[in-house]
Design a protein that fits this description.
199 residues, alpha/beta, Rossmann fold, disordered N terminus
C-alpha cells in the first residue's frame, strides 16, 4: 500500500450510532488493518464508557451535565490524539453521538440542547471528520453489558435522531448496511481501503 497522506495530515474516521451496533468491533479491526498496512494509527476510545467509569449516569438517566461531560471528554480525547500527528485517527464515537443522545433525552431542555449543538458544530467546523460511518441498530436487542440501556425502543429513538442529524447537517456519512458485528466490521474495513488506500 502507498501512503496517501502526502501532506502528513491525519485522516479522521469517526464511528457513530446507538449502542450495541458493532462500532467497537469495527474500531478494533479497522485499526488492526491499518497498522498491518504500516500506517500509524491513533485509536480514540468511547467517551460514554469513560463517563460511566467516572460515575455519570447514562442513557435515559443522563442529565444535560452528563452529555456536556461526554462531549467535552470526546474533544479532549481527540485533542490528545491530534498531538501525535499520526496517519489515521479512528474514533469509537464522535461529538455527534453526544448530540444525538442529548436530543433523545426528555430531561435535557431545548436551551441545553442548542448549546450542545453549537459546541459540536463549531468543533467539527474547526476539526472536521474526513469520514463518518454510521451503524444503524441491528435486528437483535442491545446486549446487557452492565453499562448501557437494553431497551430497544430507546435505541430506536436514538437511531431516529441520528438520521435527523445526518440529514440536516449534511455530514460526510457512510451508512453501514451489513447485518452482524463481523459483517459490519468487514464492510467498514473495505470501505476505508477503497476511500483512503491504494495498491
Amino acid at each position: 500500500m502507498v501512503n496517501p497522506l502526502s501532506n502528513s495530515r491525519t485522516i479522521r474516521i469517526g464511528l457513530m450510532g446507538a449502542h450495541s451496533g458493532g462500532k467497537t468491533t469495527a474500531w478494533y479491526d479497522l485499526a488492526a488493518m491499518l497498522k498491518k498496512a504500516r500506517y500509524t494509527v491513533d485509536t480514540v476510545p468511547e467517551s460514554a464508557t469513560q463517563a460511566a467509569d467516572a460515575g455519570w449516569p447514562l442513557d435515559r438517566l443522563a442529565s444535560a451535565k452528563t452529555q456536556f461531560w461526554i462531549v467535552a471528554q470526546q474533544m479532549k480525547n481527540e485533542l490528545e490524539a491530534m498531538r501525535h500527528g499520526r496517519d489515521f485517527m479512528i474514533l469509537d464515537r464522535t461529538v455527534f453521538d453526544g448530540l444525538a443522545y442529548g436530543a433523545s433525552n426528555d430531561k435535557i431542555s431545548n436551551t441545553e440542547y442548542q448549546l450542545l449543538a453549537f459546541i459540536a458544530n463549531m468543533w467539527t467546523e474547526i476539526y472536521p471528520y474526513d469520514l463518518l460511518i454510521y451503524f444503524p441498530p441491528r435486528d437483535e436487542p442491545p446486549q446487557a453489558d452492565g453499562v448501557r440501556d437494553t431497551d430497544i425502543d430507546w435505541q430506536r429513538k436514538i437511531h431516529i435522531e441520528f438520521l435527523r442529524l445526518t440529514t440536516t447537517l449534511g455530514l460526510p456519512i457512510y451508512i453501514c448496511q451489513a447485518g452482524d458485528r463481523e459483517e459490519r466490521s468487514l464492510e467498514v474495513v473495505n470501505e476505508v481501503k477503497k476511500r483512503f488506500m491504494r495498491k
